[in-house]
Amino acid sequence: MTTKARTEYEVVVGVEVHVQLKTRSKMFCACPRDYYNAEPNTHVCPVCLGAPGVLPVINREAVHFTILAGLAMGCEIPAESKFDRKNYPYPDLMKGYQISQYDRPLCVGGALEIEGDDGPKTVRLERIHLEEDTARLLHRDDGAEPYSLIDVNRSGVPLMELVTKPDMRSGHETAAFLRTLRQLLRYLEISDADMEKGSFRFDVNLSLRPRGTQPLGTKVELKNMNSFRSAQRGVEFEVQRQSAILESGGRILLETRGFVDATGETASQRSKEEAHDYRYFPEPDLPPLRIPAEEVAALRERLPELPDAKRARFEREYGLPHDEAALLAETRARAGAFEEAVRAAGDPKRARAVAHWLIGDVARHLNALGADAELADTRVTPAHIGELARLVEERTVTASSAKEVLDAAFESGEMPAAIVEARGLRIVSDAGAIDEVARRVIEANPKAVDDYRGGKESAIKFLVGQVMREMRGRADPNGATEALRSHLEAGR
Ligand code: ZN
Ligand code: MN
Predict the structure, then answer these.
(1) Element (H or E) spanning 426, and its range?
(2) Which of 5, 94, 398, 446 is the most buried (most CB within 10 A)?
């Protein structure tokens, strides 16, 4: 990207996100919704197969989940909404049309706060509506000729579609919006929002305009991005490609482009001039959907504490710095484990220590298990963490022994106090024993002793480390420091 292009053009980005909702049954029939571990074509009935003459029934849970998402983002929930048919022929669309919502969606407006390029930023939403997913096509090339298989299990899975206003101004902001949205959906427990499983899919619409001007440039739609990182790279590549065209006096084509992960580039898929006319019309088999105000009020009561509010409360209640509070509030499970561990530690003052265990050594164990691993996936419970923080604070074990205790707890699931006893890790605060080791360490390290006596205070840290090493991490560090200091001063 040339510096000139970077300063002269501004990118304007909006996104469309499709989210599979974690309901029990499908959108318009009683088939089980969860198909991830099911044999293909086992969650199927005449409705989701699109047999003629069958009637759809609206899934109340899917409507509620969508309204919950809308309320969490401050959308207006109109008293009446309706479903429409979106017509287009494709092999994965069993009926030849998708039941969707055209001009009267369930949720209107709203916004999501994100961490933008220049600090906190509001990304406004256009709408959120409800529709049904299509069947899944599996393209194979393992025979004489390529062929395709169809899995109808996904047909009719509730799909929530969210459309933003064009409020993002960079690839980074686009990725930040998507991350924040996924976090919120997971907090609400209405979707797995898992990109790999296809339960969180997005398209990015973007255009360039000369900086400082209002009218939007020609829109390009980006598809095929399967990670937040690829969304960011896709936008950045388009800024580069389009500004080069505009620089040289060229014209941007209205088109759909696919992101290619391997190269980080985008490639034209189809020109929008040949876009379908979906011939939307009201779904004749479904009456308009009326949502009484009391129902909306009851759903509002169901909203959990949301990520930002939780993070702010963690800062306030436990005196945690912003970044630590944000890390702990990142998932509802982690936040819950934190507060449970603080209770188990027996004193809210130990919250900071509990936070450090969770963010540090516990996170290291969880990362080894996988990106989305939570404490609940291991043999360690919040009670373990609370007890460990208490043992360190009460000086039953040293910080370095505590790490060994934690590792052992991940192995066996045993409680920290029991591990301390079984392994003989109780702190040694016997002044005589420490004094003996301190004397030996001083004799063996004349250089550090000279440094200390010459005024280099920090040399004592090295000597404390040597005492700890001799005592296999079990020496009370304060006792060791005191013993060393008295010998060093005496010998001046
Ligand atoms: Zn069905
Ligand atoms: Mn859609």
Answers:
(1) none
(2) 398
